[in-house]
Amino acid sequence: MALVAACSPAREADVTLYTSVDQNHAEPVLRAIETRSGLRIAAVHDIEAAKTTGLVNRLLAERERPVADVFWSSECLQTLRLEAAGVLAPFPAAVGDRSVRPYERWAAVGGRLRVI
Q1: Contact at 8 Å (CB) between 85 and 60?
Q2: pLDDT at residue 62, rounded to an integer
């Protein structure tokens, strides 16, 4: 998984999060974060047909006026694409030095193994 932050103006929610993580897996995590932090999180989930690509294209289109504060995805290459396009903003290293890239624009917070 990758966790990515981008700046945006204030809204009703404290944090707007775009995620390609399946909603049934993401929601319990987000509710726990809300309970612990007191933040209000507005999650924008992908649709199965588009998955991460749809959210990445949305982030690219919103580059000049970002809506998302956080992008949570398991697609490393799409995250690198956003980084190369200058879409990602720096964020504080909150998950440990070994997990944060030197640019501090995304962090690996978990892994997913695919075996054939």
Answers
A1: yes
A2: 95
